[in-house]
Fold:
Amino acid sequence: MVGSLQTGSEVRAMAVSSGLIYLGCKGGTVEIWDKKKRSKVDTLQMGTNCRVNCMALDSNEVLVIGTSDGQIQVTS
Structure:
């Protein structure tokens, strides 16, 4: 094992960029972690009564998030 992250959330999806790790969680949040420091940078709230089902990261590090309420959201 190279390392681990301690999150209190139920992780449903994950995407990794060059410097960040994105964790999509059951509560409709996306936790953003610094890959080198292994520390949480920010939390995005995608919805109130949903869960993150899937995430994809393109070559420009644009994150696309699909949630259980039928929404698809794009962040950069």
